[in-house]
Amino acid sequence: MVENEIEKEPVLIGAILKEHREKQDYSIGQVANQLHLDNRVITAIENDDHDSLPDPIYVRGYIRGYCKLLNLDTEEILALYKESARRDDPEIIPEIKYPTQSSSSDKPVKAFTYLISLGLVLLVIAWWQSNFIISGPSSLAPEVSESQPAEETAIEEQTAEPLEEINISQYVPFTGYMPDYPMDITITPGVAETQVVNPFATSEDHIEVDGQIMDEISDHFMSETDLGPSIIDSEERQAISTGNDTEAEEDETPPSTGPDTLVLTINADSWIEIFDVNEQKIYFDLGRTGEELTLKGTAPFDILLGFAQGVSIEYNGNSVDQAPYTRAGVARFTLGD
């Protein structure tokens, strides 16, 4: 009876591996380094802690390598592991049924979606009708038939007023400047009308007007505005224009000079900007194909090339490679630091 009970006791491979490891004077860390495993895996194998180990297919590989390291019979140890692993029956987990969630294919969800869509369509139609449908012309047409005779009568009364009571300033607006070209103004006595005919005409002055009305016009303009400063003859305007041109020419920056020389050979049209160390503009223009520019100044130069591939540069006789500074065809760099 005692022998049968001993035979039924399971053989623990972890104890066997641990015993041989200690006999060969290996530590857990040394075994783990040899097998490229973590110390916790070796400890779990020696303690037969199957819960801390991965799937049996991986554990068999670990045990095979462990046996080769300790020169043990691999097949015998694996057979013992198979017997011990068979006793650990896997726990059967009951199937868990989770409650189903509503999806877009459910009928209630579809019906609710259709209702929302219909409501949006109705709102759009109502908004469109309130903003773009115009009521019939009868409600907007003004009642002209009744008011037209009264307006015509009022116009006739205004045109029949004497000329002496008309304020001429409302017909000839004053702009603060009296032109130096002749004007033809015709005022017919007895009618409240002022007609300006061809203000740019070059013929002699032709004014037919009652003397009293002309006096009123002259008094009106001279009393309200002093025209002296605003009247500039053609010779004065020409002199001012000539002075402005001279000042503009004086403001231009003279050509820069300096000890350093730049030679630009333009193979394709390119915008070019060059400034010297004093931020003085050396060149700021569009370089045309075929041009060769020789510029002098004091380095370092800040250079911008709008089309870098179309411009070759020599600095003090040495060729310059602007490719490292070129992005999307545009080069911006400082030369002569």
What this model shows, in words?
The protein has 337 residues and is an alpha+beta fold. Among the domains are: 11-87, 434 Repressor (Amino-terminal Domain) (Orthogonal Bundle); 163-224, no CATH class; 260-335. It contains eleven helices and twelve strands. It has helices at 2-8, 13-23, 28-35, 39-46, 56-70, 74-87, 107-132, 137-140, 144-159, 211-224, 234-251, and strands at residues 184-186, 195-197, 206-208, 260-266, 270-275, 281-287, 292-297, 301-305, 311-315, 318-320, 326-327, 330-335. Strand 5 (270-275) and strand 6 form a beta hairpin. Helix 3 (28-35) packs across helix 4 and helix 5 packs antiparallel against helix 6. It starts with a helix and ends with a strand. Mean pLDDT is 71; it is low at 1-7, 136-145, 162-210 and 224-254.
Low-pLDDT runs: 1-7, 136-145, 162-210, 224-254
- CATH C-level of the domain at 11-87: Mainly Alpha
Overall spatial form: flat
Which architecture name of the domain at 11-87 does CATH use? Orthogonal Bundle
Taking the sheet with the most strands, its summary is: 5 strands, antiparallel
Number of helices: 11
Order of helices and strands: HHHHHHHHHEEEHHEEEEEEEEE
Quote the average pLDDT: 71
CATH topology of the domain at 11-87: 434 Repressor (Amino-terminal Domain)
Structural class: alpha+beta
The CATH superfamily label of the domain at 11-87 reads: lambda repressor-like DNA-binding domains
Number of strands: 12
Terminal CA distance reads 102 Å
Portion in helices: 40-55%
Strand content: 15-25%
Radius of gyration: 53 Å
